[in-house]
Design goal:
Strand order of the largest sheet: 2-3-7-4-6-5
Number of helices: 15
Order of helices and strands: HHEHEEHEHEHEHEHEHEHHHHHH
Largest sheet: 6 strands, mixed, barrel
Number of strands: 9
Helix content: 40-55%
Length: 407
């Protein structure tokens, strides 16, 4: 083994009689380096984007969510709520009611999703950390009057300013009563004072307005109904077992989802994109490895006399094949090491200085997020070395047969 590796290194670094072989070998190393570096960078960027999006979703998506299996709303059973509070692992829960409504502010109109929430909502979610202008999250005035917290996108469209005394109008079609062409009689109209603006992500900011639960029920003509029960756990690591316990408690008439299931389509699409990008870059790396085949082909042809000398000195066929296989593998190893090093350096620079910026000003960060994970630094070199071994094994097996079998 040591002899074959030693000769392979000499063949790789020694000057050849044909300069083209040196050039092709250098191109082979460069191709593997660039492919490896690209894999490390792309996977790290996907890690960062997934973490960033998860952070956005985690601001408002509860760890567990209970909804009705059929219909939009349901009346929660007090006995089940009491049992839910006593379940081990449940830190706090909140009741919410969600419907679409027409908003009017002075002369502007906007259709948004109005979400009524109870006093525990800020404990379950991270809305208090998303408030702008250092204004605290608050749905009640000192006198007990209801207040609204509005998404930044909604506020921008309506030209809403919390420093003004103008109130926000909420228009909702009546659920009860006969059809009436008179808007004043066909709609319920309520006034509420905006108390703050939150900013998380453009789509969410342009969709939601938060109100006190009792006020939302009066707007939508509900009494005790809710849309969801949102739960914060005391131990996120035991979410799966707690979810099973809640499913057993509430029965088949309810659906209990964790954070992944609440955004299941998005996470599946993101993972599919990550896999697709990995496969595409691996195929590009495979194409780049054809340079290794060309380099070894020319080297074997050039070293025909050396093969004869080695055989006359007692080298068997297996040793000679190992020499050229190790040379091809050395090209992959050098390229993989260099690519990993360059990928790590580039990712570290992006993490440290944020050179490449994200488009838009409504995200929680202004530069492309990058997260380095150990598994990527294991999967990528293994993939590169497997491709490199194949690229070396095939030409060696095919071409050396000509020179080994004739002796």
């Amino acid at each position: 083994m040591k002899l074959s590796v030693y000769i392979a290194k000499r063949y790789l670094f020694a000057k050849k009689s044909r300069n083209a072989i040196n050039i092709i070998s250098a191109v082979s190393v460069a191709g593997v380096t660039v492919g490896t570096m690209a894999l490390i960078i792309i996977l790290s960027v996907f890690n960062g984007l997934e973490q960033m999006v998860s952070k956005i979703f985690n601001t408002f998506d509860p760890e567990l969510e209970i909804t009705a299996a059929e219909g939009k709303v349901f009346v929660p059973d007090p006995s089940k709520l009491a049992a839910l509070s006593s379940l081990k692992g449940v830190a706090v829960y909140t009741l919410t009611l969600e419907e679409n409504a027409l908003l009017m502010y002075e002369e502007k109109q906007y259709i948004a999703t109005v979400k009524g929430v109870d006093d525990n909502f800020d404990d379950v979610t991270g809305i208090d950390s998303a408030m702008t202008d250092d204004i605290k999250y608050n749905l009640r005035s000192p006198g007990g009057s209801p207040l609204a917290v509005v998404g930044a996108g909604v506020a921008n469209y309506l030209g809403l300013n919390i420093n003004f005394i103008a109130q926000l109008e909420i228009w909702v079609p009546k659920r009860t009563g006969s059809v009436n062409l008179d808007p004043e009689k066909a709609f319920i109209k309520k006034y509420i004072t905006p108390s703050g603006i939150f900013r998380v992500e453009q789509e969410h900011d342009s969709k939601y307005v938060y109100l006190p639960l009792d006020f939302a029920r009066s707007v939508f003509e509900y009494e005790m109904e809710v849309s969801t029960i949102e739960i914060k756990t005391s131990d996120p690591d035991n979410t799966e077992s707690l979810q099973a316990a809640i499913i057993k408690l509430f029965g088949p008439d309810y659906v209990v989802k964790n954070r992944f299931q609440q955004q299941e389509i998005f996470y599946k699409v993101m993972r599919s994109e990550r896999l697709a990008i990995f496969i595409i870059l691996t195929l590009i790396l495979l194409i780049a490895s054809f340079n290794i085949i060309g380099s070894l082909t020319m080297l074997i042809i050039e070293k025909e006399r050396d093969i004869e000398i080695l055989k006359s000195l007692g080298a068997d066929n297996a040793l000679i094949r190992k020499i050229f296989i190790f040379e091809g593998w050395l090209i992959s190893i050098i390229g993989a090491v260099a690519g990993i090093a360059l990928g790590f350096i580039i990712c570290w620079i992006q993490q440290r200085f944020g050179i490449i910026k994200l488009a838009g000003d409504s995200l929680i960060m202004d530069s492309y997020p990058v997260v380095l994970k150990l598994k990527d630094f294991i999967i990528v070199p293994v993939t590169v070395l497997l491709i490199g071994f194949w690229a070396a094994w095939y030409p060696v097996r095919y071409l050396t047969r000509k020179y080994l079998l004739k002796n």
